[in-house]
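Hey, sorry to bother you again with one of my protein questions. I've been staring at a protein lately and its backbone has me curious. I owe you a coffee for this, so here goes:
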Amino acid sequence: MDRGGISIIDQQKDAIISAVKKITQGERPERQKPRQIETEIETEIETETWGAQERKRKIENALANPRITPLRILDNTVKEADLLNNNIANIERIEEKRDMNPGMDAIYILSPQPHIVQCLVADFERRRYRRAFLLWTAILPKELSDMLRGAKSQIAGYKTLLVDFYPRESHLVTFQDPYSFPVLYHPSCNDLVAKHLQTLAQRIVGICIALGEMPKVRYYRPKNPTHEAAVLCTHLARFVQKELDAYQSFDPNFSAPTSRPQPVLVITDRSMDLVAPLVHEFTYQAIAHDLLPVEDGERVTYCVTFNEGTDKAEEKVMELAETDSLWIENRHRHMIHTIEKLGGDFKKFLESNAHFTKDSSQTTMNTIKAMMADMPEYTAMKELYSLHVTMAQEALRVFGEDKIPDLAPVEQTLATGLDDDLKKPKNVLDQVVRLLDQDGIKPLNRLRLIALYILYRDGLIPEDINRLLAHSSLPQSEADKILNLDLLGAQTTHGLKDARPAPPPLFPRTTINIPQEEEYITSRFEPAVKSMLEDLCRGSLDPDSFPYTNPPPDVAEESLASQASLRSAAPRWASANRRQVENRQRIVVFIAGGATYSETRACYEVSEKLNRDIFLATSHMLSPELFLRQVGDLSVDRRRLGLPMDQPKPRPPAHIFDPPTPPAPMSPPFGVGPGGSRSPPVGVQPPSNSLAAMTLNGPAGQYPAPPQPVNGGPDRSGAGIPPDSGKPNKLSKEKKLRGLFGKKK
């Protein structure tokens, strides 16, 4: 499913590394000095063994520490060696105590946060380094830029990178900000919305800039809306267009002409599809995040026990990342096919390594796990297969225990409006009530079912909602998790005698070419984003529901261009296929308020089917439980939400303002001992203070003019700044590789 081509992970990495290279390779050899990188301190979330409170901890961890810092950006996409091999002597955090190094240049990778700028100013006041090259992860607001006016002579270079986002997959970007949801939809957060939309706009534009694109902008505009947040996409699209125009003015030569069709950015929000976060999705990635204790924090991880049941049993936290080929290959497969594929691949592995085979006639999940214990020479492959076999096995166990096979057909009927025979369903309420009566259906799944039924019915009278909750043995307090859906545009309640026609669906469903296999019958629902993308690629996306910020002069011509690019999806020979990958139209979809893994899968599928490069961006990834938790919180007192905006602002550590430590007494010249006598020769000593400062982090602003270097200083963009052909010695290298990022890469 995941094809080759451009990766947003690589694009962000290249933006950071190339900026550093322009600095380190631009120095004159006679002025070579090793440099240092600094990053911000973060509070780590302690992991715990999963027990009775596992789901609660999973949600709490998802809501913890949402701020994107430069350290997290680097940790996610850049290897330490990528920086250290570019004449960087050391990497340190700007908020930690550091040595004075007035003879050394420093590269700072910074976020435009007030307390970070205060740390930077403190360095300038103490002349901690010889010169400073400033790389900002986002736009520095004018009021913070003004704080640097007194340090012009020390600023040798200045550049805004616009990398204030967090690539999760090659075509998936998150902002790691679950608090975006209450800011956008909570009635008491109206005063925060404008500033938050500005921040979102700049991050979205950062993604476009990283991809090298200046897209047309379209946005979701619901018809006949009833909720205040209906204007959210309209305002966000205007903010984005303004930022794109500002960047185009800042860099008129940015977007060079290409043979690709013009890119498109589509801005939507969670209200466009309220069903996707509720219905069970049966592809591997989605079901893992729904049913298993997958930790979805700075990294996506799962704890697996190797050699279980033996004296060599060992627990290990494994990452589900782009480097895991089995994960990439299977994450969008239906679970049935995932299990078949894992079994088939493992059988082929055994056939090519026959000395491991005991009895490979039946490769069940249990036999695969047993065979894994006998393969110590193939540790990496063994661990990957063990991880995914364990996850698949555990998912199937929970799948059965939670009675999801019983829930699935009814959920699909409610989500699609069609029964198993693809006809208008009958006796839907009876089916729902029967499931609510059934033992083994978990409270969360009962609540999801009730929410789906209310959305299917376009609202119920309040008394009926209370009856369904009581029938499900759910407390009345859970009602907020359903009723608050009206803040996202749903009709959850109506009067007893209210007569109104059901609103037409945004994307009418078709029964044409729907496979009749059992796994597809229970997976008939497709997220609205898939229909939207298919219509967009075919040139038939409704311009009333998805208008342009700057309408094209001829919409008909625009449609013809889309249809022409569809024809390029026809098969080609190998050389033509390479051109195809390079010439695919790029589409960025931003979903405000969080996205689901079913929507991620849909974007990859349309990319494959219609020959596009589609990137999904969002504030955070949603599990069904997190979505319902956040919807319920929309009626909670704002003071209880713990919004970062309502917390005390971070302050620089006190030691930043301490007077500099007096320099150590001068050592005698090399080779001269006390009293002027020559000392015996010794090995070359490494520099004791070989550090270089680089700092990371970033929010929003307006492409301000940076402080100009004085005396004809080097170009502030970072180009033309002092080559460094010198390589650090071995001891210095060891010092650098102590692992700032928490683990070696």
Q: What stands out?
A: The chain has a mean pLDDT of 81.
